[in-house]
Amino acid sequence: MPDVEVANTGLLPAGGAGWQESLGAERRGQERRGQDRQGERLGPKRSGRSSEAASRARRLIVTGALLAGDGAAILAACGGSLLLMAVSGASPGIPPASLLGWCAVQIGVMAVFGLYEQIEAEPIERLRRRSLAAACAFAAGLLMGSGAPWSWAVAAAIAALLSIPLGHYAEGFVRARLVRRGLWGAATIVYGEGAVELARSLAARPELGLRPIGIVSEPAQGVEPFRATASLGLAGGPEGGADLLEAAEVAICTPGEREPARFAWLTRHPFRQVLVAHHAPEVETVRLQTRCLGPVVGLVVRRAIFLPHNLRLKRAVDLAVTLPALVVFGPLIGLLALAVKLTDPGPAFYVQPRVGRNGRTIRVYKLRSMYRDAEERLAVHLAGDEAARREWDRFCKLRNDPRVLPGIGAFIRRTSLDELPQLLNVLRGDMSVVGPRPFPAYHTERFGPAFQTLRASVPPGLTGLWQISARSDGDLGVQEQQDSFYIRNWSIWIDLYVLLETVPAVLTAKGAR
Q: Is 186 helix (H, G, I), strand (E, B) or coil?
């Protein structure tokens, strides 16, 4: 068994309370006593019952918060269902109190699907499980209301459908607050070559449910782990290493670690989970499938978006979303068009050629948010401002864009309302509701040939992963990573996730320019 040392990483999500607070006052006392054991080497046995108690307490708090959020969301869904039934003049045909039993059934089904254990799945997979749980709860509701009028089935169906987005938003609300208090995510140590980079990545994505608290290093290799981490700007020191190891619930062996003896040490330690990281961006996936190939592990590469029946399903969803959206947003588009014409005389709409599926040029409709001589204004601005030129070269966008109309132009760009006319593009079949955004040729040509080919293999989208995350704050590299992830992992669940997350992204104008 190799000697190991553990350094505190200081890598908690922004706003977190710190790894010390997550251990509690009793754990902090143990950390101070641990300073007297700086030279101690760590074996595979954990004797700290207090760390296990702290871990259990954290899990109980997280589970309780998630249960409270789901309970409120499901009750709201039931209330919404009863309200819609009342407005329509129908009665569910069953006492409203019976819906409380249905709420309990749905929460029980979600517990079976693992929605109250945050290390089991990332948000897209959790949304899939939530949707399946709602379907199971609807089936249970039909059994509960056997003999009741048909209106009960309608009420249960509406409540089940409403519980999906409401539960998703409630979970996001709860998770954000738990992250800020340092309670979300299982305490995780990372072991092996490249551990610092992996820990940084996990800390930047707290929704994955793995909270890095330490980096395990191998002194026998002549590497002083604490100086190495300090040189990368990480907080920490040798004190409290044993306590960190005892507090860890999950251990990750990095892609660069291939020494069997060191990996065996991890498997002998009583962690809740031991994960073996594998660096394979070409098969980056949400729901990884493996195949036994004898002594070799085979990774199944999914390409669901290219299957004809999935393309037909995606088209059906596009029409189901677009037709009602055109009815709802039609008057708003007219009002915004009038505001544009009042600000700058000329056409309120314009058509821009962009790169569509299979590389063909499509005509994309937009509300005009820029001056009619926008290109001339841009050329003059870039010629006289080197910083703006560098920003344009990196993002193909400007934070202070001289082309944008004052007032209405900035507003519709910040809220993405200028994209609403592209619902017509979706209706025509030029675009999909969700997919990689269609860029002008000057933007697309900045990507490498391989990615250009991959991107052109699917329909462009009205919204996508880039819009709900980095948006204009993401450079070309971020755009390539996110679009590649979407294409390689497409499922109806990832489209649903993007649609749900588009609402808060637009309302908060996250990353918009």
A: strand
Nearest in space to 102 (alpha carbons), one of 127, 85, 77, 80: 77
> Which one is predicted more confidently, 512 or 256?
256
Parallel, antiparallel, or unpaired: how do β-strands 273-276 and 289-293 relate?
unpaired
Is the backbone of residue 24 left (phi > 0), alpha (psi -120 to 50) or beta? left
Give exposure, 443-467, as e/b (b: 16+ Cβ within 10 Å).
Answer: bbeebeeebbebbbebbbbbbbbbb
Q: Which two tokens stand for residue 124?
A: 């897209």
Q: How far is the C-alpha of 358 from the C-alpha of 421, rounded, in Å?
A: 23
Give SS3 for 96: coil
Secondary structure of residue 372 in the 3-state scheme: coil
Q: Break the chain down into helix, strand, coil percent, rounded to 5.
A: 60, 10, 30
SS3 (DSSP) at 233: coil
Gap between the Cα atoms of 33 and 85, Å rounded:
63
pLDDT band at 206 (very low <50, low <70, confident <90, very high): confident
Among 10-24, 179-193, 451-465, 495-509, the least confident range: 10-24
Compute how many other C-beta atoms are within 10 angstroms of the C-beta atom of residue 118.
26
Residue type, 119: I
**Residue 9 CA: distances (Å) to CA of 42, 235, 250, 408:** 18, 6, 15, 46
Query: CA-CA distances (angstroms) from residue 421 to 79, 322, 329, 461?
Result: 34, 11, 9, 13
Residue 203 Cα distances to 13, 196, 400, 473, angstroms: 5, 10, 31, 19
Strands 273-276 and 210-217, sheet pairing:
unpaired
Residue percentage of the chain with pLDDT more than 90: 23
Dihedral (Cα; 152, 153, 155, 161), 10-degree rounding: 160
Residue 390 DSSP SS3: helix
Q: In DSSP terms, which residues pair with 298 in a beta bridge?
A: 291
Compute the distance between CA of residue 165 and CA of residue 372 in angstroms, rounded to an integer.
Answer: 40
Q: Strands, DSSP E only, in 162-312?
A: 186-191, 210-217, 250-253, 273-276, 289-293, 296-300
Q: Residue 325: which region, alpha, beta or left (left: phi > 0; alpha: psi -120 to 50)?
A: alpha
Three-state secondary-structure class, residue 397: coil
Whole-number Å distance between alpha carbons of 271 and 250: 6
Closest CA to 20 of 325, 243, 281: 243
Q: 234 CB contacts (<8 Å, ≥6 apart)? A: 7, 9, 10, 11, 196
Distance CA 356, CA 513 (A): 23
HSE toward the beta carbon, residue 418, CA cutoff 13 A: 25
Query: CA–CA separation, 1 vs 6, rounded Å?
Result: 15
